[in-house]
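Complex record, two chains
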Amino acid sequence: MELSVIRERLDQLRRMMAAHGWDAVILTGTDPHRSEYSAPRYHAVEWASGYTGEGDLVVTADHAGLWTDSRYFIQANAQLEGTGVQLHKTRVPDEVPVPQWLARHFAGGSETVVAVDGRCISATEVTTLRTAFGAEDALTVVSIPDLLQPLWTDRPAVPQTPVITLGAELAGWSRTQKLSWLRRWLSEGGFDGILLSALDEIAWLLNVRGEDIAYNPLVISYLLVTPTDCLWFVRKGPLPPEDHETEDSFYELTADGVSIQDYDEIGLVLSGMLDGEFIHRLFVDASTLNYDLYQLLKESAPRCEIEAGRTPVGLRKAVKNEIEIAQMREAHLEDGLAMVQFLFWLEQSLAAGESIDEYEAACYLHDCRSRIPGFRGESFETISAYGPSAALPHYVTPETGSRVLFPQGLYLCDSGGQYIFGTTDITRTVPLGPCTQLEKEDYTLVLKGHIDLAKAVFPRGTAGCQLDALARAPLWASLRNFGHGTGHGVGFFLGVHEGPQDIRQNFNRQPLLAGMITSDEPGIYREGRHGVRHENLLLTVDAGTNEFGAWSRFEPLTLCPFDTSALLVGLLDESEIAWLNAYHKRVYEKLSPRLSGPAARWLRDKTAPVTR
Amino acid sequence: MELSVIRERLDQLRRMMAAHGWDAVILTGTDPHRSEYSAPRYHAVEWASGYTGEGDLVVTADHAGLWTDSRYFIQANAQLEGTGVQLHKTRVPDEVPVPQWLARHFAGGSETVVAVDGRCISATEVTTLRTAFGAEDALTVVSIPDLLQPLWTDRPAVPQTPVITLGAELAGWSRTQKLSWLRRWLSEGGFDGILLSALDEIAWLLNVRGEDIAYNPLVISYLLVTPTDCLWFVRKGPLPPEDHETEDSFYELTADGVSIQDYDEIGLVLSGMLDGEFIHRLFVDASTLNYDLYQLLKESAPRCEIEAGRTPVGLRKAVKNEIEIAQMREAHLEDGLAMVQFLFWLEQSLAAGESIDEYEAACYLHDCRSRIPGFRGESFETISAYGPSAALPHYVTPETGSRVLFPQGLYLCDSGGQYIFGTTDITRTVPLGPCTQLEKEDYTLVLKGHIDLAKAVFPRGTAGCQLDALARAPLWASLRNFGHGTGHGVGFFLGVHEGPQDIRQNFNRQPLLAGMITSDEPGIYREGRHGVRHENLLLTVDAGTNEFGAWSRFEPLTLCPFDTSALLVGLLDESEIAWLNAYHKRVYEKLSPRLSGPAARWLRDKTAPVTR
């Protein structure tokens, strides 16, 4: 974007602020559901600053600042240069978060007025802001729906993509089963309503999927479930006449007792139901409820008791049922074939002296996946990173001018697919030719860490943070480490990142239950040199009971060889070698029946057992 | 104790309850400082029930119940048989804790009156009790100082043992340095007083030690420190004329500005200082404050602000200074020599066909330690356990009729010494002759777990619970586990169990800081068969800084060989074997200069390197 455009937009915003008497405006990139990715309509930070990463923008009469964490420092510095917007670093020592910064900036003055779009900021954030200002009369927060609307004239609408439904043959549980289960939960808890606002929870509960958000097959909506009613706030306008998919879906949903409502009516209908005393005790999702809805509920407080917490849907969704598991296995078989096709092509092409850059490699991989029936797009933006690019764990591969691959050193590819029958996420680091000793060591130690976690057996009820050290200890032993989590939950044809479980240093008490799917992706990153990451998805399964208690273990879902050409086998112990050989044997047995000719031979070679 | 005596005591207690109109009495075994071990004066539960373990006794007109956890079920069942006292299990599913039991027992009646000795129950416990009863007027708690006094005519006095002082050459920091440090802390926090009630914190701060409590070299006392005064509430009566040690210590303390006060005057003096407005903001130790003192402070609340929390002394004490560390190394050298002498004797005696039982073995070990200059007793009761005895992690070796050792299977000895220059805690499991395959496997896997934790390198700031899995993973891999923590903090000539750090599954955020000493003691226990535990004390030390951050590692303080005769070396990997051989080399180098003849040859054999 041109610098002059940004400066003009900031000027316009400041004129609007002056006209309304606002001392500051907080813009976020968040949608009303706190989705991990948001639709372009909610890219307010980008509109006002040109910056496309995560972060919050704060504008006052004399300052404009962007708050973001280390993943985005380089990007923010580049994109904000010349805009006058200053970078404020978060998650660093001595960080001054937005609330504290604002409180200090306006300290000593009269009442400060801060404007926000109450749909795009969480209730918690506003509370934190109030706390920072201390005295109640020191701060007024005004919530303006679609705050930028008067200036952002070409602002995209709320997306309205075709809605599809999943039958029980795909989802395992039908939506009527799920609704009955949720209503039992309401009844047991003494609630007469639950408001779901997390889009993946709604999609799971109703067995619906859409394309409203990049990489996440979700439908922007709210869902209100009571003992007798199920109201889905979803329509954003009349259905396009050609959208028969959605028409059929709505028909099916209505038949199952789901009432289709307009997305924008949520406030009106909800306050009517609270006012009319249809709902006396309502459960809401504390982690995704936006400030506007929170305010609406608070105003109903005398008439209705509101309980905010973690909904039961998140945990239930994370524990996959047998049908979901069977299909996830199938999705990983198909995805593994695509990966093999890609890795085989990469090796052949480089050997033939062809010139391929990071972006072209990502495109080829996309083509491989897109030929799979049921493919619905990628599960996140492919990280296709060669050499020093891979030293950035969240590297964004540029469309033009990306690094060209040479037959030496390490190439890292972190990618995944959304299929109607599952979601995948895989990272392979590929030696493209000769590697340095350090590259080989890093490659091997990260694989050692990956294997040590993957082969773990552990008491039922163990949380991910209690296992995290297993993936890190082999790296720690040589004074190496990585700054991201080891594993995140993965949905079933839903978000590639989901809770409540994870495998990290942070203390998260959620046990890894049988049926949960979590990634295992340790890494080592060396700035300006290279990066290594090895990632499979692991399914937690029961491992029996004995005199010492009940046990769990992992089953790797991902089916794709780890390249052994850069492996320093001597750094692996026997049990690690045994795991690797057994894994490769399984990969070969599962994939080879679907391959022939050179690709089959390639896979046989790549999965050949290693010995010390 | 005779059953008739117990029944008579319970009858007397019930007559006293009836006379006073008390519906229930709660007796605890706790002293006014919540010490891990209490002096006989506080063994109220034992007096009234004959039961000598940990637990609370609740007596009503129609019921007497003892509440304790699984460590004591067997002991409680045996000791309570025929007394009419019923065992209530705690830390089990469906447990009904004392407060809930009382609330249910008296539900529906008029106001319930519960009598306690307010010095021997914590403020938290009384709060929990009030919460269980719900309505404020449903419960009256009456606190009677020395509640059992009228019945327990031969009740021991508060112990008054000789008080000794440690110079800075032993303690590292002089008491004036420590007092200055604590007063800086007061000043920085805006406090004008801190009341210490944990006996090990007081002993550390004043550099004093005593023998008021078994196994813990502590002095029963309170300490009040203000910016200008330091009041030690410790005198329980006139000093015996021959106690020159205490006289000298008191003189030295007085010279350093410590005012010696009567132990029983704490309430009077404290309320005077709060009343007289000498103290406006007082810090107290939330974890050891008893109910009576809490009540006294609460009554002063309008005049004085009370902040309850973790005192700074606990953490400061846990991080040993250079002089304490140097002496702990020395203590472990001496202790290691005693252990070698003991293990050598044990092997020789059994080989010579001598009959030794568990208790005799413990006595011999005591003799070995008692010859060390500066020995002040054991740091806890020695667990000397052969065969099935060792399957109980907290086995109490009986004085008479203990199991006789035979030249086969596993003997476990967990013991430690208090020396004026340090505290030790060591467990060795010794194969006395041929072992079964299962014994060998358990022996080896526990050692593997011990080594994997001991050899860990980890980012500075890592907490024990983030490392715990390292000691367990080798056991988990064969579906084995143990039900206790892996490691506890150890004091410097103080309690053998101290916080704030530990290494357990429980989430404790306290990092393992350089200078902390923690045990490493995984185990496997098989009821009716055998038990294995291997324990060294580990000192956390800095391991440098590099591009990945700052690092820590462990240095084993304990110096004593692990018997390799039962080792299945094939189960250890190369790095584990390397650790074991390096450890044994160090043990030999440190101890052998102090040994000669057969013992030196024995140690050389026992520390010989192993190979696969």
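Note: The mean pLDDT of chain A is 95.
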